[in-house]
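To make this tangible, this section ends with a sequence with its structure tokens:
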Amino acid sequence: MQNRFAKKTTISFRLEQHKVAALDKLARAQTRDRTYLLNEAVKAYLEVQQWQLRHIQEGLRQADAGMGTDHAEVRAKWRKRPR
């Protein structure tokens, strides 16, 4: 849960005008401001990227622990699958 009193930092970046217009249209429709929507978008992006990184790291951990499946075994199972 995001703390609404958490310290905030101002950043700036360039964005294509049509994206700004779409963002502003969404903000008006949701009775929100642009900053709120940008914060929500960054939050969603970070959640997805962090989820993916955790799963990659877990996969690497399993591979390092020898928990993988041999390529030949995977191929054999693939060939035996029902079609």
Q: What stands out?
A: The chain has a mean pLDDT of 93. The chain has three helices and no strands. The radius of gyration is 22 Å. Residues 17-80 form one domain.
